[in-house]
Design brief:
The chain has 278 residues and is mainly beta. It is built from 1 helix and 24 strands. The strands form 7 sheets. It has a 4-stranded antiparallel β-sheet with strand order 5-6-7-8, with no helix packed on it. It starts with a strand and ends in a 15-residue tail after the last strand.
Length: 278
Amino acid sequence: SKNSISVYEAPSMGLLDKKSIKLEGVEHFCWSPTGPLMAVFIPEQQRGNQPARVALIEIPSKKEIRQKQLFSVHELKLHWHPGGQYLAAVVSRFTKTKKSTYSGFELFRIEERDIAIEVMELDNKTDKVVDFAWEPKGHNFIVIHGYGARPDTSVYTLKDSAVKGGGNVKKRGTFKGKSANQIFWSPQGRFCVLAGLKGLNGQLEFFNAEDMETMATAEHFMCTEVAWDPTGRFAATSVTAVHQMENCFNIWSFNGILVYCLPRERFFQFLWRPRPPT
C-alpha cells in the first residue's frame, strides 16, 4: 500500500508478525527468485531533501541488510539475477539542469561479504536503456541502449572480478546498430535471441554470448513473443491474436534454424511444458 509492504505466510495466509513493514513512500518491491529476501525502491521524499534508496530486506526478520542512497532519480527498475546472486538497479537520473537524463547501474553482489555494490555507466551515459537482462546460470548481462530503430547492444560480465574478490564490471564488447529492442536468454545461459519486436517487425538474431558471435539472423514478421523451452535447445516465436493477420508460431533450434511452423487463425498463447529436475 502507499507507505507499507504486507507479507503473508503460508499455510495460514496470516500477516507476518500481524503487522506490515512500514516504508514511507515505497514504490516498488520484488522478491529474490531463490531466497526470502526482497529488494525495495523508495523514491526521494520531502521534495528531494531525503534521497531515494534501494534497500534489501530479509524475511522473516524484516531486517534491512543493505541499502544504497541515490540522488536525482527520474526512474528506477530492479532486475534480479535468476540465480539470486546479483541484483541490478537500472537508474535514470536527472542532469543538474533537470532538462535531460542519463543512465547508470547499481549492481549488488548478494553472495559477497557485506553485499558489495558495483557502480557502472555506459560509455555514452546519455543513451537510453532499451532493455536489460541477466544470463541465467552465468555471470553475464546484456544491455540494449541508444535511440531509434538500431540501438547498440553491449555484453558485460561480473565473472572475472568475482573470482578476484570484488572489482569492476568488465565490458566484453559492444555491437553497433542492431535491430533489437528485447533480450531473451536461453534458460541454460550462453545463447540468447536479440529480438526486434513491435515497431521493428520481428527481426531475430541468435547470439552466442560465450563466443561473442552471431549464429544466425532471421525474421518472423509481426512477431509478438519469444519463448525458450526449458532445456535451451529450442526457441518458439509467435504472432498472437493481438494482430488479426499472420497468426502462427515458429519453432527454431537454439542456433537459429527453423524446424517447425504452424499457422493458426485467432492464435492466443504459446507455452512450453515446464521441465522438472530429472
